[in-house]
Amino acid sequence: MQALHFLQALARIARAAPKPAHSARTRQIRHAAYASMAHSSRSSRRTWSRALLHRLRQRQQQRPGRLLTVRRRVRIVTPITSRPEEPARAETLRQLVPGGRGMEYCNLLEETADYVQCLRAQVQLMQTLLDAFSS
Amino acid sequence: MDLCESNGLEKRNGDRIDPQLIPQFGAPIGMVPVSGAGTGTASPFPLWPGMPNLSNPIAEPFNPGMLNQSSNKFPYSGVLPPGLPNFPSEPGFIERAARLSCFSANAGFNGLMNNSISNQAQKGELNSMNIGSGSSHGNQLKNQGSIENNSETNEGAEDKISNGDNANANGDSSQNDSGSKKRKRTNQDGAMGQGQASMKSQEEAGKQTSESKKEVDNSGSKNTGKNGKDAADVPKGDYIHVRARRGQATNSHSLAERVRREKISERMKYLQELVPGCSKVTGKAVMLDEIINYVQSLQRQVEFLSMKLAAVNPRLDLNIETLLSKDILQGRGACSSTVGFTHEMFHSQLLPSQPGLLPPGLPGMLNPSDPFRRAINTPLSAMNPFKDPNPQMSTTWQDELHNVMSMNFATNPPLSTQEIATKPSDGFQL
């Protein structure tokens, strides 16, 4: 499911008028990679996949109009969920995993596990494609 | 338990527990009869939502054999309804309750039955008990509410006696079973029969359990936010049967925290397996660092690979992509037919151009497709760790890959066409 989506997106990107800008294509491919990760059947029910899709859509909406505006959402993240027994690095993990801000530590770990699995699968897929296309 | 049963049998009709039944208690327990939820009994106690309504109120909890097993798990906990009036603090009652109640999260019945074992422990706990009825009420409610569920791994310390449990068991055991008054009476009778529970503990237990039960439905995570380990022993009664280990605090706060800690450690273990090279690392802090590093490296890899793919992408023909997407779009169901068709298409396109080329380099050319196929299969299987990858899908993918490979090779020197030419003869090795 994940690979399917990714290849479709790749096809779409290749079919689209290839922008000369290398960075633009990179961005598109990365976008496609994360989107396919979020759409995979295993993770569609996860918090991180929803948060990721939301983030991607936000970025997409920004893109067309403004090239250089970096929209900063001033999000006052009060450590509501931080608890004394949480290790200090939990905040870093929250920033890494999409949607990790609002989760409790316990659920954060679970989401991280799922996220790691999907990331690994995606990396493997991309690597394989790269090898296939460049051989 | 015969004693209990016999006593309970007398007034099984959902009447309030008469003081006469519990002469030792000295004062009417004042417990509101436990009512089965929606059962025919007219007992006013509402059953806790989610509490199973045991059909056999009498037999189970008083099975001494059952109670003595540490792995017993009662689906209910002795909980008094919130509206339970305060128990008169009778030292004898409390003692009995303390002795009787063996605190397991599963049921107060255990406590009831094993009081003999842990008298001293109970007494110790009793001392720390918060005897005020109101406070115990509140405590219990909060504590129980906060108790985490699931971990049934804890071995119940049968010594553990929670006052609440005792009281609950005695008074509310019926609740556990079916919320019927009879139950309660029986429990009480049972306690009386054992003659060991202290009234106070029972009282406390009953009140606390009921209150805490109420809060069980509320998030289990409340626990950690709450006071933590009170001195007051709170019945561990909970829907989710968590047992306090021997020698550990039976406070429902601590119990819930323990459950939570176990959940966290379990997830950390799972993460440890996921992240390569973490099996030797011990300790949560280092593990967390490793996990963070791994996630960061994976994300960087995605970026890097997408950059490379962007560079490679222009090489692909539009045909390839179109065909690929067409195959994909046509779905996994039609994979075989589609693939066959596309392969024929390939052959029709390619064969006329370079007919009759022998494939001296065929074996060499064929090799890349196999590892490619395998490589694609690996992520496919990795993506579905918990179930078999859809064989049809993998088949489709393999076919797709064949197509892609053949297309790629077609654009290359004639050797590729040899491969394509020989492909149909080989048949598809999926």
List the quaternary state of the chains. Answer: heterodimer
- The share of residues in helices of chain B is 55-70%
Q: Span between N and C termini of chain B?
A: 68 Å
Low-pLDDT residue spans of chain A: none
C-alpha end-to-end distance of chain A: 25 Å
Topology order of chain B in helix (H) and strand (E) letters: HHHHHHHHHHHHHHHHH
Briefly note the structural class of the backbone of chain B: mainly alpha
Rounded mean pLDDT score of chain B: 52
Counted by DSSP, the helix tally of chain A is 5
Q: Outline the low-pLDDT stretches of chain B.
A: 1-15, 25-85, 103-234, 332-373, 382-396, 407-430
Number of DSSP strand runs of chain A: 0
> What is the global morphology of chain B?
elongated
Helix content of chain A: 55-70%
The overall average pLDDT of chain A, rounded, is 77
Strand count, sense and barrel status of the largest sheet of chain B are:
none
Protein described:
The complex is a heterodimer of chains A (135) and B (430). By secondary structure, chain A is an all-alpha fold. Chain A contains 5 helices and no strands. Chain B has 430 residues and is an all-alpha fold. In chain B, α3 (91-100) packs across α9. Chain B is elongated, with a radius of gyration of 34 Å.
